[in-house]
Design goal:
The chain is α/β, with parallel strands linked by helices. It contains 4 helices and 14 strands.
């Protein structure tokens, strides 16, 4: 159901697909009182589900609470969460920045309503697209022991990847794209991601002194030798 932009809620029967292994485009939208639709927590019983991508409606005030159920997904290996983008503007770039700034304030107002969502320990690949606030750790907790190997962050308002509560120590592959507010130098990045072997940096103007090639790619010497 990926990129089906007119879908606002998921059908209730989705949770009955007991053999489902891959689900792309699950929508967390604005809840309808008494409505018969599928919530994220309804998918917990899908014991074979290994790959899940979620689209969060930018106007949903309950999204953070619904994402709390992620901790109970026991077999998930790949998780992608995207926040809906804004296109209705005469000047798309200016309109997008203005609306994202407004949404950031709205999302921050919901932080006190729900605790950070715990990403399952089984997840090996985690992607965030158009993240609407500056600090990833107010939304997500990785815990201590993780299998996370790949992290991808594309677009949005993210400005901080450093936090004592978060463990990036297992991440080997990192992709950062279109992050105008993220500010770090290469030394800081290596401290935060000590096992990094592959790095891709595209249009992140405040990431400085990175030894990437003309394509924005860096590979460790060990990685190059393996190839």
């Amino acid at each position: 159901m990926y990129e089906c932009y007119l879908i606002s809620l998921m059908p209730k029967g989705l949770a009955s697909l007991s053999e489902l292994r891959v689900l792309k485009g699950f929508v967390i939208g604005k809840q309808i009182p008494g409505g018969q639709y599928c919530k994220l927590e309804d998918l917990i019983e899908l014991e074979h589900l290994e790959k899940l991508s979620i689209l969060v409606d930018k106007n949903s005030p309950t999204a953070m609470r619904e994402l709390n159920s992620l901790a109970n997904f026991g077999k998930l290996k790949s998780l992608s969460i995207s926040w809906s983008r804004i296109y209705n503007s005469a000047n798309p770039q200016r309109g997008l920045r203005r609306r994202l700034s407004t949404l950031s304030k709205v999302w921050n107002s919901h932080f006190e309503e729900a605790a950070a969502s715990t990403i399952p320990k089984t997840v090996e690949k985690f992607s965030l697209l158009y993240f609407p606030v500056s600090n990833i750790f107010e939304w997500f907790s990785l815990g201590e022991r993780q299998n996370l190997r790949k992290l991808c962050v594309r677009g949005g308002e993210l400005s901080n990847l450093k936090d004592q509560k978060c463990c990036w120590e297992t991440v080997e592959y990192l992709r950062l794209k279109f992050l105008s507010k993220l500010k770090m130098d290469w030394r800081e990045m290596k401290q935060v991601f000590p096992k990094l072997t592959y790095m891709e940096k595209i249009k992140c103007p405040q990431l400085s002194f990175f030894p990437c090639d003309e394509n924005g790619i860096w590979k460790s010497e060990a990685s190059q030798q393996d190839n």
